Amino acid sequence: MKSEFVATIKIRSINPYVLVSAARASTIKSGWRKPMPVLVRVNGRPDHPWRTNMMPVGSGGFYLYLHGDIRRVSQASVGDRVRIEIKFDASYRNGPQHSMPIWFRRGLMANARAKKNWLALTPSRKKEVLRYFSRLKSPAARDRNLAGALHVLSGAAGRFMGRAWADGS
User: Fold this and answer.
1) Is residue 90 pLDDT above 90, yes or no?
2) What's the CA gap between 110 and 167, in Å, rounded?
3) Could you write out the DSSP letters of every residue in 8-66?
4) pLDDT at 168
5) Per-residue model confidence (pLDDT) at position 73
6) Given this model, what pLDDT does residue 8 score?
7) Is the pLDDT of residue 96 over 70?
8) What's the distance, CA 69 to chain centroid?
9) Where does residue 30 rank: exposed (0-12), middle (13-18), buried (19+ CB within 10 A)?
10) Would you state the pLDDT for residue 93?
11) CATH superfamily to which 2-88 belongs
């Protein structure tokens, strides 16, 4: 079922979002407690709804984080009142959507600890890393990111993809 409402875009840390109440979330998909796959439009844009996951708040409500691309196309900013359209995405497939690049696969095969820690990562973290890798263009960027990924997956403390890693996760 589709839900439409007006809300103000707020910011949490650095992430713009709209809060979806527990009552509204239950009209989208009753009883859902984990990240909820949805199709979203803001101010009637984009023409084809944006796929994303709403993240649980803990009270039955959800954060609907608004990616920069959807804010740009809908001409919406933090503090704006916007019209939101949300529909449960029944066609969602969880887990990594991007294939593992051969250069990353080779790096994991050469490093047993990194491979073990990669296999132990949650599907959402693997998906995030593989999506990031799919956007790398230059060989220098691939080499730099392969070194960073193997460093943190090997158990060393460090930062990779904008977050702190320790003990391989």
Assistant:
1) no
2) 18
3) E-EEETTEEEEEE-HHHHHHHSTT--SPEEEEEEETTEEEEEEEEEEEE-SSS-EEEE-
4) 85
5) 95
6) 97
7) no
8) 13
9) exposed
10) 66
11) AF2212/PG0164-like (2.40.30.100)
End-to-end CA distance of the chain: 37
DSSP string, 56-113: E-SSS-EEEE--HHHHHHHT--TT-EEEEEEEE-TT---S--SPPPHHHHHHHHT-HH
| C-alpha closest to that of 65 among 38, 99, 96 | 38
Q: Say if CB 157 and CB 117 are below 8 A apart.
A: no
Note the pTM of the prediction, 2 decimals.
0.59
Report the alpha-carbon angle 95-144-157, nearest 5: 70
**Per-residue confidence (pLDDT) for residue 59, from 0 to 100:** 87
Distances (CA, A) of 96 to 42, 127, 145: 26, 4, 18
Domain residue extents for the chain: 2-88, 102-165
